[in-house]
UniProtKB/TrEMBL annotation:
Pfam short name (any one): 4HBT
Keywords carried by this UniProt record: Hydrolase, Repeat, Transit peptide
Species annotation: Tetradesmus obliquus (Green alga)
Record-linked Gene3D superfamilies: Hotdog Thioesterase (3.10.129.10)
Listed PANTHER family: ACYL-COA THIOESTERASE, ACYL-COENZYME A THIOESTERASE 9, MITOCHONDRIAL
Ranges for domain HotDog ACOT-type: 116-231, 308-465
Presence of the UniProt keyword Protein biosynthesis in the record: no
Source taxon at top rank: Eukaryota
Coiled coil: none
Family that this chain belongs to: Belongs to the acyl coenzyme A hydrolase family.
GO biological process, one term: acyl-CoA metabolic process
Protein name stated in the entry: HotDog ACOT-type domain-containing protein
């Protein structure tokens, strides 16, 4: 069963708010009151019992004021309407319970496919929303949409007649990986469904579809959500998914095997990642080279540098226009900002424009509130080398798979790459650069910091024959932990 969401791109009417001048103390009090109102409004997004919303009215445009993509905004409006309808049903069910009618428990559900379309060839405004400076797909914007779509899929699955709207939080992003390059010269669609359910968690699989590769996906993403009880904010039991098709059964078996393997690994290693013998040797070599670099730098490898020397950071105050439906900062926004910092770090480290390959892991430890002072810090963790694909002669761009070009130039680039590889068959290769970004909320008044998120992205950099990037070595305990996590997640 398909639930098709039409995406319409248009600007809402802007409203200007003004306030009288006040003293510094009054300003602080006003800001605190506004933050409380924002949080209350976010809760209203989740539990409002007002009438359903017509997405064509101007009243809808102020519901989510911010730099959201048209896809994300439409998904949220659709989810808001469903939440309002369910709130009415829950109120009716509560009256029925008082009258002696019991609410039925959640039954197993067959997967429901939800799809959003990107009509780039017909909607030029939509095209500009997703175009990066080099004319390719802006990956950061797509990350926002994937988070919104996964949340809508999880919401629809966890809806139970007679109960309040479900409260869901993003637990992790297990993987996002390109299979084929995505271009802006053809329409695109993204669809997904629940593929596995645990006790209180559920896994969402999404695919990006675009000609000429469809029905083979151009990108595959796996998100994990946790269902919380709206009253206690404790994990709640999710309705179980009941796979129907052989493909759905395979996906469910794969995710069940992954969940069992992770549980066994955590138990065996007591929470520490396990490394293979080859990875252990790689780690020991890196530690030995790092000690030489720190103790006797004049005798160390001149191409080596510490992970801290590759670091970039930025800090900003989280604004109300960046919040999600629940009044907290939107997880897709955090993913985009971390991606853009990781991209810049790779660009400066490699000296040429990198291409997105995959997301290896994203964890959400703590929510981020409006008004939080949020700091992002990136480190290049590991560099590995791989044979260059056939189209590697084209300059890679942010938002595309390694060495891919636009649809117009793909065939000439592939031909040039083939000819060059025939001349230098063993020298063409690309470097995969793994970058980890950590997000920390600082509270200067309390002199406290809270680690909220960890993001790890992998980018590809095309190398000239015989070229190699500088070797990155761990120089602190935190660097070693990052390298271990990265190696443990390597295929």
């Amino acid at each position: 069963m398909f639930a098709l969401l039409a995406v319409r791109s248009r600007y809402g009417a802007a409203r200007l708010l003004s306030c009288s001048s006040c003293s510094a103390l009054q300003q602080i009090q006003v800001q605190q009151q506004q933050q409380q109102q924002i949080q209350q409004q976010g809760q209203a997004f989740h539990s409002s019992s007002s009438s359903s919303i017509d997405s064509s009215s101007s009243e809808d445009d102020h519901k989510f004021v911010g730099a959201y993509t048209p896809v994300t905004k439409q998904l949220w409006l659709d989810r808001l309407r469903k939440a309002e309808q369910q709130q009415h049903q829950a109120a009716g069910a509560a009256a029925g319970v008082l009258a002696g009618t019991e609410v039925q428990p959640a039954a197993a559900k067959a997967p429901q496919v939800t799809r959003v379309d990107y009509p780039f060839t017909k909607d030029k405004f939509l095209l500009e929303m997703y175009r990066n400076p080099w004319g390719f797909l802006r990956m950061g914007r797509l990350l926002e949409d994937l988070d919104s779509l996964a949340g809508s899929i999880a919401f629809a699955h966890c809806q139970v007649p007679g109960l309040p709207p479900p409260l869901l939080v993003t637990a992790a992003v297990d993987a996002i990986e390109y299979q084929h390059p995505a271009v802006l010269s053809a329409d695109m669609a993204c669809q997904g469904q629940v593929v596995y359910t645990g006790g209180s968690s559920l896994d969402i699989r999404m695919e990006l579809l675009q000609e000429p590769h469809a029905p083979s996906p151009s990108l595959v993403a796996l998100f994990s959500f946790v269902l919380l009880d709206p009253a206690t904010k404790r994990p709640a039991k999710v309705p179980q998914v009941q796979p129907v098709t052989p493909q759905e059964q395979r996906w469910a078996a794969e995710r069940a095997a992954v969940a069992a393997a992770r549980k066994a690994a955590r138990k065996a290693a007591q929470g520490k990642p396990q490394l293979s013998a080859e990875q252990q040797q790689l780690l020991q070599e890196a530690l030995s080279a790092s000690r030489l670099l720190l103790d006797m730098p004049a005798l160390a490898d001149p191409s080596a540098l510490t992970a801290e020397e590759t670091s970039l950071s930025n800090a900003f105050v989280c604004q109300p226009q960046q919040r999600n439906m629940h009044g907290r900062i939107f997880g897709g926004f955090l993913m985009r900002r971390a991606f853009e910092l990781a991209f810049a770090s790779t660009y400066l480290f490699a000296g040429s424009r990198p291409a997105f390959v995959r997301v290896e892991d994203i964890t959400f430890r703590n929510p981020v509130d409006v008004g939080s002072l949020l700091r992002f810090k990136s480190h290049v963790v590991h560099v590995s080398y791989h044979p260059a694909p056939a189209a590697a002669a084209a300059a890679p761009a942010e938002g595309t798979a390694a060495g891919t070009a636009s649809a117009e130039s793909a065939q000439p680039a592939a031909a040039a790459a083939t000819e060059e590889q025939q001349q230098q068959p063993q020298q063409q290769r690309v470097a995969h650069v793994a970058v980890e970004v950590e997000a920390v909320v600082s509270q200067p008044e309390q002199k406290e910091t809270t680690h909220t998120n960890t993001f790890r992205y992998v980018f590809a950099v095309k190398l000239a024959p015989g070229q190699a990037l500088r070797r990155v070595l761990p120089a602190s305990e935190a660097d070693v932990e990052r390298l271990i996590r990265c190696l443990a997640d390597c295929e």
